[in-house]
Design goal:
The chain has helices spanning 2-27, 32-51, 56-80, 95-117, 126-180; strands at 88-89, 190-191. It is mainly alpha-helical. The chain has a two-stranded parallel ribbon.
């Protein structure tokens, strides 16, 4: 039974490749079928190294998750010590993380454009499944990179607002202290370096 199913799928895939070749040659006479195969082959070779465990994408996600945990720890410490304000504040992700995010976003965006240029194969073929899977993986990774970038920006904006509020409160305390001739016991915000 399985042999019969495999033979049917094999015939279907061969027919789909023949249709794909004819359609690709018609729609892209300059590169056609060969260009589609080369593009997909290059992506299939490069993509796993970028998104698999230990790849560039996984490394960026891991660094981001650690940073976000550190941010949560600082914010939680502030919330829990409302009677005695905490002056640690959050630093942005490092320049190297940001540069790697931009570089990977560019590479994946190029892959996404290349995938979109491939002549679509017949939907019930194995090649269509491979193409759809690659497209979903690339688009998913791009979405994650954008989400991490946007989240980091939102965290830093929230932190900027918090620092401005704290400085304003310190300024008000200083003004009140100078009116009564005493000095405020408040400390200035301190950087708490990301581990």
């Amino acid at each position: 039974m399985r042999d019969k199913e495999r033979q049917v799928q094999q015939r279907l895939n061969i027919g789909a490749l023949q249709d794909w070749e004819a359609e690709a040659t018609k729609s892209r006479p300059d590169s056609g079928f060969t260009g589609n195969v080369q593009t997909l082959s290059r992506i299939l070779e490069e993509l796993p190294g970028l998104i698999d465990s230990g790849g560039q994408h996984a490394t960026l996600v891991d660094g981001f998750e650690k940073w976000l945990g550190w941010v949560s720890e600082i914010w939680q410490d502030r919330d829990e010590s409302s009677s005695k304000p905490r002056w640690d504040f959050v630093e942005a992700m490092g320049d190297s993380w940001k540069a790697e995010n931009v570089a990977l976003t560019r590479r994946l965006s190029l892959m996404s454009r290349d995938l979109a240029k491939i002549t679509p194969p017949r939907e019930d073929s194995g090649i269509a499944l491979v193409l759809a899977t690659c497209t979903a993986l690339v688009d998913g990774a791009l979405d994650e990179l954008k989400t991490m970038h946007d989240t980091e920006r939102a965290v830093m904006e929230r932190e900027r607002v918090w620092v401005d509020e704290q400085l304003s409160l310190m300024s008000q305390d200083t003004a009140r202290s100078s009116d009564v001739g005493t000095t405020s016991g408040n400390k200035r915000p301190q950087r708490r370096p990301f581990p």
